[in-house]
Structures are given as structure tokens and as C-alpha cells.
Specification:
mainly alpha, 6 helices, rod-shaped
């Protein structure tokens, strides 16, 4: 019996009862931790960029890609917070004088930085 195209390129079949089923497996990928920004981007890919998600998943690069996006977003988030704190004059002195006002300013800065990161990296 002549080999199929699948067999010619190195594919194998496994017998399941009376049927021959192709033995397909994803290439191995190094597991890397994915944080909040990486998970948000994953949800975005699944919902709005299905082709990109499928291509990354089937090529075995999804975890690496998400870990890289998470790292970039986290670094940008922290850099934005520090820049905004300096621009607005939020210091440790304010924290000692009026802790509640310091927390208010810091929460506002974090919300602004999160929105910027979402717009620039996560949902782009």
C-alpha cells in the first residue's frame, strides 16, 4: 500500500478499534509563569484575535509569547508609576505626613498606569 502524504512527511497513525487516527502532538514548550498582564492578553487573544491565538498555540510558542508580554507590561507599569510619582511630587515625606492622601494619590497613579499599559501592550 502506498504511503499517504502525512506518512511521507514523518507522520504516524495509531489504531483505535477499526480506525487509523493520526498521532498528533504539540511541540514541547518550556513552562514559564504568566502574571496578570499575560492572562489579560491571553483572554484578549482568545476573544478578539482567534487566528493569532491558534497559530501561537499550535506552534508551541504561546506560553513564551505570553510570558514575554507579561514581562514587558510589568516593566512598563512599574516605570510609569515611578515617573508619575516624581512628576506629581509623591514622596515618602507625604506618606509620613498624611498617609491617607498618599494612598489616594498612589491608587490614582496605579489606575492611570494600568490603563496606559492595557492600551499600549495588552489590547494592542
Amino acid at each position: 500500500m502506498e504511503k499517504t502524504i502525512f506518512e511521507k512527511i514523518g507522520g504516524e497513525f495509531g489504531r483505535q478499534g477499526d480506525y487509523l487516527i493520526p498521532c498528533l502532538a504539540l511541540p514541547p514548550e518550556k513552562e514559564q509563569p504568566i502574571g496578570l498582564f499575560g492572562r489579560r492578553h491571553l483572554d484578549y487573544l482568545k476573544q478578539y484575535r482567534k487566528v493569532t491565538y491558534t497559530n501561537l498555540l499550535t506552534s508551541g510558542r504561546l506560553n513564551t509569547y505570553l510570558a514575554d508580554i507579561d514581562r514587558q507590561a510589568q516593566e512598563r507599569f512599574e516605570r510609569l508609576i515611578e515617573d508619575m510619582k516624581q512628576a506629581q511630587g509623591i514622596t515618602e515625606g507625604l506618606k509620613e505626613e498624611n498617609a491617607l492622601e498618599w494612598v489616594q494619590h498612589l491608587n490614582n497613579i496605579r489606575a492611570c498606569a494600568r490603563e496606559i499599559v492595557n492600551e499600549e501592550i495588552i489590547f494592542a
